[in-house]
Amino acid sequence: MEVRVANVRKEFERFPALHDVSLDIKSGELIALLGPSGSGKTTLLRLIAGLERPTKGTIFFGEEDASQKSIQERNVGFVFQHYALFRHMTVADNIGFGLKVRHGPTRPSAQEIRRRASELLDLVQLSGLEKRYPAQLSGGQRQRVALARAMAIEPAVLLLDEPFGALDAQVRRELRRWLRDIHDATGYTTVFVTHDQEEALELADRVVVMSQGSIEQVGTADEIYDTPNSPFVYGFIGESSSLPVKIEDGQVWIADRPIGLSAPQAPQGEATLFFRPHDVELVDECNGCIAGTVAASRRVAGTRRVELEIGGERQRVEVELPVDHPAAQKSRVAFRPRRWKLFPAV
Amino acid sequence: MTTAPAKAGWRFRQPSVIPGFGLTLGFSLAYLTLIILIPLSGLVWRSAALGWADFWAIATDRRTINALEISFGTAFIAAAVNVVFGTIVAWVLVRYNFPGRRIVDAMVDLPFALPTAVAGIALTTLYAPNGWLGSLLAPLGIKVAYTPLGIVIALIFIGLPFVVRTVQPIMEEIDKEVEEVAATLGANRFQTIARVLLPGLAPAIVTGFALAFARGVGEYGSVIFIAGNLPYKSEIAPLLIVIRLEEYNYAAATAIAAIMLALSFVMLLVINLVQTWSRKRYG
User: Fold this and answer.
1) Which parts of the sequence belong to the ABC transmembrane type-1 domain (chain B) (predicted)?
2) Domains along chain A?
């Protein structure tokens, strides 16, 4: 189902957690809410679920205004970071819970509920564990049960709050792929919250980057990574280096030297230059380039990361060099960013 | 790696490399023996001196049976009532923040601290036919003081903190997310409480029940004031023991005590087994 968040504001005891957030989620989409802690991503998820009421604004499920509905009526599947399984129920009873609490004719027979539960267990690859109790499962297995339980009610939307946050790295990567497969197989509109950008970029159709209670950018992994629209997104997603610069005559200047980048569209004056440490071109002759003294050099996996001090202000930036590049031995390195972006100085 | 042949015979499993097991187990056994086992075995020994026929005569005496019925019956009812209301009190204290919460919280412990005789006298004054509450109930034909109902009320008073204090800490640990998940799955408030919250609290509630029940069976001070102590009607077993003692009939007193001991032990054992079972199940 389509979900539309329209101009939602949320305050907790006068403290604003979300300012005027709007977001359209397409039917069947897998969308990630990504941001540092305190960015409001979990609040937004809980608002969609109905676990919180917006201070202002509306949330639509399809054409219907869901803000007026209770949590029970919204029919959302919610998965918590710490699973929140019912400890005193078997796996099968956990999964069947949402069907068992229904009233009247909408409630399937006990036999049908059992059948659904074992069908869902097959889907989450835990066949045969119906009779186990949550305490007898591993973290990854518990989270699969929690997801199966959420899907049992055939939810309008599936909402996952840091679903893999409590699991170790190995299981996490595994479950990530598995969640993608489940999503492709079932087609539920899914929103998940994460602070792990790798998870968001790899898994989601679209990523919503949030910061300080606002949405910074919404886009595919490529859009977010290649064309960040704000200094926050540039800094938050992937590695980045930044330098204070000056724009004059359509040229980018550091101190009193042009660095060989032309920016005819940029307004005159102070600005900040952003680039990716791995996306630079080393130059021998510094004829319009950025040059700096090597302050530190670290070997990181397949590359060498060099920290440079630039200019009189000794601004530090990082660039990545191939491991065997001769420049790594030198005390001065000159380079020019291949891809870069200017943002007005704050 | 080769495994050493299993040593013949039975031995302790090494509990941990950190020392202390031998010392603490030895201390516990010595302590329990001194404080509990020796007095109780003295009791059994004294009543055994009575001879089987005499013992049986005392045990099947109408007055003894009635006293035991009243003691165990009223303690059971009072503990059951306390389970319901004690759980509600604990819920209110854990879940809601209201002015005076700390005071209410402290009040729960008063029955622990108050001399039981004071409680008994206060309750009797209240529920006597001419007392504040008794005079209101009298026209309705409800007699509280000097009846088993009065005993139940005194035992409810005495047992309340046991239930509240055992349930409260477990309730504090309930994860709010579990309730939220139940709500998103469509469960209404009643279903959430009945199917999700209460089963999780069951072991603690059973413990609270056991403690309140055990306390009620042994309670003497508060009950004798309100009970009226009519033989066959509102006479509790502990009182009967005291009466026998005052008659210098030590054998009969110890016999009744031994019967109470056996009954209490069996009931607490059963409750303990129920608990172990539910703990194992619900992890």
Assistant:
1) 68-271
2) 3-235 (3.40.50.300), 241-344 (2.40.50.140)
